[in-house]
Amino acid sequence: MKTNLSNFDFDLPLDLIAQKPLPERDQSRLLVVDRKKGTLFHDIFPNLSRHLIVPPLMVFNNTQVVPAKIFATLQHNGKLVELILTRKISSGIWEVLMKGKMKPGTKLNFQGSLLVGYFIKRNAERAVIEFSSEQILDDYLKNYGRMPLPPYIHRKQEDSAIIQQQDKIRYQTVFASQSGAIAAPTAGLHFTKTHLKKLKGNNIKMAYLTLHVGPGTFKPIRTEDFSKHEMEAEIFRITPKNWNLITDSKKKGQPILAVGTTSTRALEAQAFRKPIRKTRSGSTNCFIIPGWHFKNVDHLLTNFHLPKSTLYLLVSAFCGKTLAKKAYSEAITQKYRFFSYGDAMLLL
User: Fold this and answer.
1) CATH code given to domain 69-145
2) Superfamily of domain 5-65+175-347
3) Which terms in the Gene Ontology molecular function aspect does this entry carry (predicted)?
4) What does pLDDT average to in each consecutive run of 10 residues of the chain (348 residues)?
5) Is the pTM of this model over 0.85?
6) Which residues contact 44 (CB under 8 A, 6 or more apart)?
7) Which of 105, 129, 143, 266 makes an SS bond possible with 211, Cβ 3.0 to 4.6 Å?
């Protein structure tokens, strides 16, 4: 099988990249893709259940996005820098996404707080920062932290409090409960509590797992041969209650609908052969590309993704390269909204 990344490229008009959410979560459009028939159907998200003829088990990722983006000024020159906290190494020491070169020991000041940070070193594409106090850092994140939106959603340091608050609410699923992600599982953003209640009323069962979406979700594939790309490991957790729901559904032949690519990767990294009594946790760098044999996911609900991305490769693996291209071409022609704050696609 050819693994040329250029075969998974497409032209996307910039005006189709959604810069802000719609007024209501479930107002988005829904492109329904029937893999067996190779057909496309245009609908709206509130009509999702109409397309689930056999009630599936819906599996959601309940990770919660941390408001991990903060700003600091460099002590020696007053330059403003942006930090996104990605991984806690030890108390007060964090790995962060931060641009620019600086010398070890460079001091960072945080406006309106006693918090200070010191640049220690670079870990590949990340910087290691030692903060003066873990507790003060926690408080600072609560008071001043912003949502770490993807780079294609344009936000400025001087954005109003109204915009910041809107992102805190809307770049978070209504069922988020396990803190630890720096990106939202965006397929879940379309659901309201009312819609979830309606789905349950339609005899659709639900299970939850946790996969903390990390900085690797923004990492582009930099090799033409995408099989050489390495996914960054992300932490997952599945409780016995949810594991056993999935295992039981598989045993009964009930279809499993993965809500999002993160749920898909977490599901496909496991073998649901028998019930468990203890929570299953660990990390996964599951990289799903065309040719993948899906063993746990029967349907997929997802947003529209970047060309040449790991996410678009996953969609192409699930419905085939030709059908994925057809669906995306139609979505572009019909001016669907793309990426995190965009519309949804249901792959049956």
Assistant:
1) 2.40.10.240
2) QueA-like (3.40.1780.10)
3) S-adenosylmethionine:tRNA ribosyltransferase-isomerase activity
4) 93 97 96 98 97 97 97 93 94 92 94 95 90 95 94 90 95 97 97 97 96 87 95 96 98 98 98 97 96 98 97 98 98 98 98
5) yes
6) 27, 28, 29, 30
7) 266
